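Bit of a strange request maybe. I'm writing a small parser for structure token strings and I need a real example to test against, not something I typed by hand. Could someone generate the tokens for this chain?
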Amino acid sequence: MGPSKNPAIWARQMDPEILNRFTANSMVDHLGIQFTEVGPDFVKATMPVDERTVQPFGVLHGGASVALSETLGSAASYGCVDDSKICVGIEINANHVRQAKSGMVEGVARPVHVGSTLQVWQTYIHDAEDRLISTGRITIAVLERRR
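Reply from user aminoacidic:
Good idea to test on real output. This should exercise your parser:
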């Protein structure tokens, strides 16, 4: 997939510090997910491969990878709307292509479609050697915020 044709997608200020504060004291924080970079059309975060994120055989749990993908897509979608809207995930799928046993993984979310009522984000998770671990796609519904 190539770069987005509309690099000016952010409707609000987006930076890792804001996103890390926003997700403090949540499952995102519990899993050790840390936002590291926001670009013109992408969001990146890392997640440790440790006792919080591995399955009983000592490899990264697929559910943890999906949680990272959903976190990235949700954060990115949040950045594309103003305060009159909320974004909710309505579907996510993932393909786990390689094991990770230790260290950190890094994920990135890039837009497939950023519409006024629906967004689709593609995620890629790589290990420290830049090998693909998992890829995902999340569909987000954009709703009016109830006052």
